[in-house]
Design brief:
Blueprint (H helix, E strand, L loop, with lengths): L2 H13 L3 H13 L3 H11 L5 H13 L3 H7 L8 H10 L3 H14 L6 H6 L9 H4 L13 H4 L6 E2 L11 H16 L1 H6 L6 E6 L6 H11 L3 E5 L1 H4 L6 H14 L4 E5 L3 H4 L8 H15 L8 E7 L17 E4 L5 H12 L10 H6 L6 H22 L7 H10 L5 H13 L7 H10 L2
Parallel strand pairs: 2-5, 2-6, 3-4, 4-5
Antiparallel strand pairs: 1-3
Helix pairs in contact: 1-2, 2-3, 2-4, 3-5, 4-5, 5-6, 6-7, 15-17, 18-20, 20-21, 22-23
């Protein structure tokens, strides 16, 4: 990457700092063997990014053996930084200093004792830490969760709807009808051409723009059962349990076709393996990939839908053909859709007849569906407050909307800024072309 592009990346980062952009810049500086600039950039990050974001960048640097830069990013005084800081310090040859920092830390706070650190530093077992802390460590008994209960698909089943309940998103609905719903409605036609019914679809976009509603509507249009699988139920502290649960869910789904398995916040299970040194997490990713297209799996009739706000965090193995090869960008609603959403949320609320919803929709550019619902809620609050103050029943009117608009903001701008940077500088295979088209059409 040339210097001009790198400078543009840095400008974009300073305008909208994210751990993703910081990671890209660090990777470029490492590829260019520019440790001096990497040190300088790392020092800046400590004043810009949150502790969690710093950890994400530091994990990437650890993968690339950039331990000195990690010491510039992190501090041992923050519990969340302790493990990676000590491991990096030890990797620079300062084993004794790393041991002392760890021993001082657990002396002040015994809850920071870590078997991972002790194994890495080749210290004695955790039991010996009682000599340092002077306290006995109590073991907490954790009841193991019943896998059969977690993998009971009926607990995840939700009512389906259809596209008539999805305001706007007409182009996406056309694409879904053509590529997803039609194979479910006419399986014999597609079988004739050796096309399988089912597969994987990834919905991505800003939060609150209707990805879950679109998934439920897709299931309804396919006449399939809709299972909204809770990722928190799958992830387990015991080694191997998460993979077992995931396999059991897919096995039950294969016995109940046609059905839709929906995974929200998909990045929690399908994040990039190179950014995570946790072997248990990597095993979950591998298991998920196996369930999607393993040699012995028959997923005909199963549509796997997933949604994410951070598609750039998804492991690339999920996005190859045969897995989540169909990606749909779910953008903020356009003017017509915004008007429809406001009118929908205003139904059955006491309001004057002369409210110009079209004009209101024009003033809500960039608002998500969730933002518009919040706007209507704020309007109702204004009317309630006025009713209480005057003692007279007040109808919602345009002045209430004017007050609410002055106090509300779009929550999609930050996401679109980040997505624009990825679409410009990390658009592998044109994956984010729809984002660029949307931004070019609707302005900055």
């Amino acid at each position: 990457m040339d210097q001009n592009t790198l400078d543009q990346l840095k400008t974009a980062f300073m305008a909208a700092p994210t751990n993703q952009l910081a990671t890209i810049i660090c990777e470029v500086l490492i590829e260019n063997n520019n440790d001096e600039k990497l040190d300088e950039f790392s020092r800046k990050l400590t004043d810009i990014l949150s502790d969690q974001d710093l950890l994400i960048v530091a994990n990437t640097l650890y993968q690339r053996n950039k331990f000195i830069q990690i010491l510039l990013l992190l501090t041992p005084h923050k519990p969340s930084h302790l493990v990676l800081y000590i491991k990096s310090l030890s990797q620079t040859g300062k084993q004794n200093e790393a041991q002392k920092i760890y021993q001082d830390a657990i002396k002040d706070n015994p809850s920071l004792m870590s078997s991972e650190i002790e194994q890495f530093l080749q210290l004695e077992s955790i039991d010996s830490a009682t000599e340092i802390t002077g306290k006995k460590t109590k073991l907490k008994v954790v009841e193991k969760i019943d896998v059969a209960e977690i993998t009971d698909l009926s607990k995840y089943q939700q009512k389906v709807t259809d596209f008539s309940d999805v305001v706007g998103l007409n182009e996406i609905k056309k694409q879904i009808s053509k590529k997803i719903i039609m194979p479910f409605q006419k399986p014999s036609l597609f079988q004739r051409f050796k096309k399988k019914v089912g597969g994987g679809v990834l919905l991505y976009g800003p939060p609150g723009c209707g990805k879950t509603l679109l998934a439920r509507a897709t299931a309804g249009e396919c006449n399939a059962a809709f299972y909204n699988v809770e990722i928190s139920d799958i992830l387990d502290m015991y080694i191997g349990e998460s993979e077992q649960k995931l396999h059991a869910i897919f096995e039950k789904a294969r016995a109940e076709t046609p059905c839709v398995l929906f995974f929200d916040e998909f990045e929690a299970m399908a994040g990039k393996r190179e950014s995570n040194r946790n072997s248990s997490f990597n095993n979950i990713v591998s298991q998920f990939l196996t369930e999607l297209d393993g040699f012995s799996q028959n997923n005909a009739g199963i549509l796997v839908l997933a949604s994410t706000n951070v598609p750039w965090s998804i492991d690339s193995a999920f996005l190859r053909p045969g897995r989540f090869d169909r990606m749909f960008f779910v953008p903020p609603p356009d003017k017509q859709a915004r008007q429809g959403i406001i009118e929908h949320h205003m139904q059955d609320r006491p309001a004057e007849d002369n409210i110009n919803y079209a004009a209101l929709a024009a003033k809500c550019k960039g608002y998500s569906g969730a933002d518009l619902f919040n706007l209507v809620e704020m309007v109702a609050d204004e009317a309630i407050d006025e009713t209480i103050e005057t003692g007279v029943d007040v109808l919602i009117n345009s002045s209430h909307f004017k007050q609410a608009l002055n106090m509300s903001n779009s929550t999609t701008i930050e996401w679109l800024t980040t997505a624009r940077n990825y679409a410009r500088y990390a658009n592998d295979g044109g994956r984010y072309n729809d984002v660029l088209k949307f931004i070019q059409k609707h302005g900055k």
